[in-house]
Write a structure and sequence with these properties.
Length: 273
Amino acid sequence: MASPAATESGLPVLVDSHCHIVFRNFDDDLEEVAQRWRDAGVRSLVHACVEPGEIPAIRALADRFEELRYSVGVHPLDTEHWQPDTPEILRQAAQADSRVVAIGELGLDLFREQNLAAQLAMLEPQLDLAVELDLPVIVHCRDAAEPMLTLLRQRASLGGCPRGVMHCWGGDPEEMAGFLELGFFISFSGTVTFPKAEATHACARQVPADRYLVETDCPFLAPVPRRGKRNEPAFVAAVAARVADLRGQTLTEVAHTSSSNAARLFGLQLHNV
């Protein structure tokens, strides 16, 4: 695993640890988007998958952009895409391509849906698959920290809890402490730049240095001052800058730390491309 260093332009190396550039609103200018992320110092991206039908298109993006790695999984709000053969489809996709570095985006979302049983029925097989393949998980958890912690603690007691990251963190420090205790990383998105996101700000200040990542979750959640517009991987620099401000550190320090953490979790090779 290469240690992140400065780019040729002197910018700190950044990792966008969670993005969705497969979406159609990138169709017309993706090459320009890629140039902007390279100009911003982004040297690796982890593309999250929300349902198996995306996998061929994400794989094609990885063919197109050598700095891109990806996950395979089913999002908790995509229960209609879960079929009896889905675990095997995900297993085969993960084993067929070494660029698959995680299972997910999986998890629980009780903000938009209340179908907890259906979401758990998708979540547990994906956690099992991550343990089987020794891959980390990318966890979506919205208004669901209590049931998620309960499940993961039960699994940890039986030796079946994978490592992973709580993506787009929106919980409070107490909830964060529970996931940290289980060994999870915490990833901050553009929400950390929002003025009223006080709980997220507190988490960014308190999270241990060796346990946080930065991400965009693009095309969603563009950071201030681009809030409300299409997000893109280059904007992870604004996320890292806000985390640096909250922690009383420089952008270079936060970029180095978060990139090292992402490389360790996902097995990334960070280099100039």
